[in-house]
Amino acid sequence: MRAVMFERFGQVPEVVEVPDPAPTEDGVVVRVEATGLCRSDWHGWMGHDPDIRVPHVPGHELAGEVVAAGALVRNWEPGDRVTVPFVSACGRCAMCAQGDQQVCERQEQPGFTYWGSFAEYVLLHHADVNLVALPATMAYGTAASLGCRFATAFRAVVVQGRVRPGEWVAVHGCGGVGLSAVMIAVACGARVVAIDVSPEALVLAGELGAAVCLNAPTVEAIRDATGGGAHVSLDALGSPVTMAASVRCLRRRGRHVQVGLLPLGDPEVPLGLVLAHELEILGSHGMAAHAYPPMMAMIEAGTLRPDRLITSTIELAAAPTALSTMGTVPGVTVITPQI
Length: 339
Prior knowledge:
This is Alcohol dehydrogenase. This protein is of the alpha/beta class. The protein contains 12 helices and 15 strands.
């Protein structure tokens, strides 16, 4: 099969021929019909993820069709249309037993701990725990954006952030995760302040319903726009600057949700402010497969439109350049390996 591979961190990948994967006993092989280009893929390519060993095939947001299943797989068979969370949970640890597969103690991640979906086929482990069935009406390109950015944003806004109608929500960084968070927060009845340095990204945020769009992470400007600070603020980019701004722009007893992947190292958190204002600091690490139904129902009803986030669709041959220039195209880029 064809796959996008890099042999050194930071070196532009190439499309090469590699052996087709075979299913493990409890896994499946999926023919990749669409896979998203995510900032996490860029972090991995740059060497920011300690789990990656070169040579490596990136890609973790995907949708496609099952073509082979292992002997222990009970719920899936060839021909099934599926997507999958980016966390491949084991299904057996204490966290999985209580339904928190997104923080599985023995988690794997396609595109990070093993080869991913920038390829014609991908192996997915523990299929009965992790696969999500796709409605016949959902396009593969739309479904590909769900496994990381959209599902992560959904849980960050709805579950971790506990966003309520009428609240102010600040979204720092309007890439795929941030734009997803804007759309979801608006659907929850919140008023959204979108912050980004890209005018094009802010135009998209406004089209998705953001009430205020700011072109710099200025704490004072956010406080002014929200009448004293955001109730909930999300760092959807992942940098020390945006993380600190997200915490500092909160009103008293506000909630910060860290969504964007931070580079290696622990940035300084303004803990004095956290203590004095009784702020909450929360993380959001994807969403378990069993938690998808409410999100899928909102998509099927048209309340959420992840397809509106897709601004570019490219073939596999264009993926190496797209990965190495990540961030230059606003919105979500989807790769179609079968074309």
